[in-house]
């Protein structure tokens, strides 16, 4: 932009999504096919072929919970460009279900989006992975003249919902080439620099300390 650079911050993530931005930051390592099978057997209750045809009833709820959480993070926070496949390594996040709330999910969402935005800056890239809702709602909050958007009838600030709930989807018709002149002509007056002041009752601004 003519007046400098802007980027999504952890405060934006906290206000828009109400995801925790403080806590353990853990990046799952790649796993082999054999380890992926073991994870599915141990933590999802998936049978290993015909040999394992029964499940323990006491663990069935834990299996279902892990499967749901894996689907949730794999299709939203850690979504890749397929938007249908989930890497088995993310199961390691849910070995201890009671500890899930201790992770900095907001930081993970932001890091993943940053990584895919770096890829998207290349001319050959045709798709964007990560959490596109975060990017879209951030644009709506800071740049009221860019893109098409609608507002929900019940403001999120009145009931403690994530600020992203303020916005409703509207199909736009502009292409990238159409938006570039608009971005190039932006001035500081076209930016809402502190959009979350009415949301501070629900998400107070604070420093994200190094808890990693």
Description:
The protein is mostly helical. The chain is built from 6 helices and 2 strands. The chain has a two-stranded antiparallel ribbon. The model is unreliable at 50-58 (pLDDT under 50).
Low-confidence stretches are: 50-58
The average pLDDT score comes to 81
Distance between the termini: 33 Å
User: What is the strand arrangement across the widest sheet?
Assistant: 1-2
The topology string of helices and strands comes to HHHHHEEH
- Beta content comes to under 5%
Shape: globular
Biggest sheet details: 2 strands, antiparallel
Structural class: mainly alpha
- The total strand number stands at 2
Q: How helical, in percent, are the residues?
A: 25-40%
The radius of gyration computed from the alpha-carbon positions, rounded to a whole number of angstroms, is 20 Å
Oligomer: single chain
Number of helices: 6
Notable traits:
212 residues; two-stranded antiparallel sheet; 6 helices; 2% strand; MAIN-like; Aminotransferase-like plant mobile domain-containing protein; AminoTfrase-like_pln_mobile
What does this entry show, briefly?
The chain is 35% helix and 2% strand. The chain is an all-alpha fold and 212 residues long.
Topology diagram in text:
Elements: H1 10-17, H2 33-44, H3 57-75, H4 105-120, H5 132-142, E1 150-151, E2 167-168, H6 176-184
Antiparallel strand pairs: 1-2
Helix pairs in contact: 1-4
